[in-house]
Structure formats: structure tokens, C-alpha cells
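WARN no homologs supplied; continuing
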Amino acid sequence: MKTQEILYELRTQNGMSQDALAEKVFVTRQAVSRWENGETVPNTETLKLLSELFGVSINTLLGAPQERICQCCGMPLEEAIISREKDGSANDSYCKWCYADGTYTYSDMDDLIEVCVAHMKDTGRPEAEIRAYLRDKLPTLDYWKRYEELSDGGQFEAFKQQLMDEINALHIEGLPKVEKLNALVGSYVNLPYRLPNGHTVKFLDDNTTYLGNQLPCEFGGTRCFGVLANMDFILICTYEENGEDPELVLYKKR
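OK structure emitted
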């Protein structure tokens, strides 16, 4: 599809008039009309606004949805999982798990391999084969090739350690010591908790990336602990397999 067709389709799918779209991206209705007639294309800054508004990459807006992979973990990139910058614009070089709000979430390749192996076991490939593939593949990706240039000098790892110290200082009964936090997208961990008044509530944003982990209860049984945190809060819960029957243990503002 051409840019003019893509913009028309996105606008109409979202129930917007040309006037409404023009207002949202700070142009005139005539400019939108010229885009959709193929007379002009949006400039770079407007493309960024359109990318944020419609939740698609700039490549897609330009009619070139290239087959891409995350340049940190190697996962195939679809529109739904591409990362975002702090201003909300799409970064189609990384997935939500590896780059969130302008921050790279992995600084240790071995940690990333462990996370990837856990998620790739369902492919039916032997674990040793998966590990060998990742050890060959990851060093060829842009993030790891440019790690010294792109890394933040350990600031994010220091922040994760601070979060773990705060969580462990809570001394939640049955919760093992938290020694690792991974990047987790809200839509995968946004469980509904039942409140004392009978209502259920979700505390997370489906589109935000958090730090968290799943740990077994020290007392045994089938329930697991779920730990989630970011700059604003710490959340601890328990649940059965696949997130069934969730129960909120603690929600604490930082």
C-alpha cells in the first residue's frame, strides 16, 4: 500500500474526519487532503505524531513495513509489540520488552538468554539448541554490537537493584528473596484483583513495560508470588498457574 492509502485507512478505521486528524497533528485539513490524494507526504515531525497517534511505525506509514527483528533479543517485530520512546513515538528497532520509554532493559546477555529460553521452550526445540542459537544470534544484533555506545553505564541496573532492596525489605511472609527483575509488558501481567467491596480492579497499564518476576512460595503449594514495580510503585500478589485466582498482597507507592 502507498502512504496515501495507509493514511486514509488509518483515519477512517479510527472514525476520524480529515478535520479531526488535522487538529491532532497540527496541520490544516487541506494538508491531510493532499496526503490522501498522493500530492504530498507528511514531514518528519508530522510522521512522528502520526506514528504516536495511530500506534504504527514510521516505516509502515511510508508504505514499507519491512520484516524486522528486535535488535536486542531477535524477536520478529509486529506493530503491536514495537517499543516506544519517552514521547510515545514508535521505535521499530526494538520490542517492548527490550526497550521501554527510552530505556534499554537488558545489560547482561546471559540474563536475556535465560529469559528467551524460558519463552521459546514451547517451540519444541531442545533447550541446548535454543541456547546455541541465541549465543550465535545475539552478538550479531545492533544493540549488542554497539553496547558500549548505547548502554547507560549501569544506571538502569542500579535502579533495578534499588527496587529489589526495597522489595526484600518488606519481608513478605513466604516470598523468597528477589534477586532478579525482568521487563514485563503490562498486558501480560495486568491481573484483575477482587477488592473487599466485591469490585475487581486492575492497577497496570497494558501498554507500559514494568519490572517483575514470578517466584514460588517458600511454604510450597501451587500458588506463586508475582512481583511488579516501576519508579512509582511496588505490587506483590499471589496466583495459581496461568494467573488464575489472583490475590493482591501489597500495593505500595514509592
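The chain has three domains: 3-98, 103-150, 155-253.
OK
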